[in-house]
């Protein structure tokens, strides 16, 4: 299983892209602005999109993706998410006002897109690639994802504040090779981080102390203009874990 980072920033500007991970050629985990860098023929190969939560920086490419490639495909794109997330997409995005409802185009029996509800703890098996929704703690209902090839595994936290249930998954994961965890703000913005349920470096360090596993740790969702400062503080507070900044086009093999 190959995982490629299409976007990992908390904003846009220049080369920055918001969150999306491409699993092999046919699966997205979140669908931020980085999806738009794929060629049209690569976009048409995407069959499954796993959404962590409904915020725009994680879902904004879904409407454009479906609209761009629907005529090139013979089957609908499947959008996975917890019930609350799917309800938000139905009500506020694919609602004929902000964007057409592609679950009804061309018609309800032959749609270009379908929703599939998953629950925290539930695993979707895609030809031996196991993707499990895991607990997260954010301002809207949210999950992260545990991705397991059978040989190695990766945990992607999604957007989350401290949540012991997340560490239960991390510590129980077999063959855990990588942890991708958010730290959106620097320590000087801790009040904003707390209000918006994001991590900041000193908080991340205290959370990592709950981890018994020893994966490689990568930091995602850094806010534009503060990446260098935030990573400096991450390494000051969590240096023994040797966290590294996640980068666009970085690849992980599981």
From TrEMBL:
GO biological process: cAMP catabolic process
Enzyme category, top tier: hydrolase
Statement: the UniProt record of this protein carries the keyword Phosphoprotein: no
Keyword S-adenosyl-L-methionine: no
EC id: 3.1.26.11
Record-annotated Metallo-beta-lactamase domain positions: 17-198
Alphabetic keyword roster: Hydrolase
GO MF term set: 3',5'-cyclic-AMP phosphodiesterase activity; 3'-tRNA processing endoribonuclease activity
PANTHER family, A to Z: ZINC PHOSPHODIESTERASE ELAC PROTEIN 1 (PTHR46018:SF2)
Stated name of the protein: Ribonuclease BN
Organism for this UniProt entry: Usitatibacter rugosus
Gene name of the record: rbn_1
């Amino acid at each position: 299983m190959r995982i490629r980072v299409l976007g990992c920033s908390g904003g846009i500007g220049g080369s920055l892209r918001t969150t999306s991970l491409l699993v092999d050629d046919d699966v997205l985990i979140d669908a931020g602005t980085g999806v738009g860098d794929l060629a049209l023929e690569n976009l048409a190969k995407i069959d499954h999109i796993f959404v962590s939560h409904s915020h725009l920086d994680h879902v904004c490419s879904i409407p454009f993706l479906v609209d761009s490639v629907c005529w090139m495909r013979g089957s609908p794109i499947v959008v996975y998410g917890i019930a609350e997330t799917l309800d938000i997409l139905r009500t506020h995005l694919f609602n004929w006002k902000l964007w057409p409802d592609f679950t009804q185009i061309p018609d309800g029996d032959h749609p270009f897109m379908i929703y599939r509800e998953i629950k925290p703890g539930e695993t979707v098996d895609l030809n031996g690639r196991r993707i499990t929704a895991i607990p997260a703690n954010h301002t809207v209902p949210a999950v992260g994802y545990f991705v397991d090839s059978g040989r190695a595994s990766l945990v992607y936290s999604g957007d989350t504040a401290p949540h012991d249930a997340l560490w239960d998954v991390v510590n129980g994961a077999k063959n855990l090779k990588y942890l991708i965890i958010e730290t959106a703000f620097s320590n000087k913005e801790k009040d904003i981080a707390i209000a918006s349920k994001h991590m900041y470096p000193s908080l991340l360090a205290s959370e990592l102390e709950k981890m018994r596993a020893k994966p490689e740790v990568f930091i995602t969702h850094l806010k534009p203009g503060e990446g260098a400062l935030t990573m400096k503080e991450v390494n000051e507070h969590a240096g023994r874990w040797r966290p590294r900044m996640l980068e666009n086009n970085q690849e992980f093999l599981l």
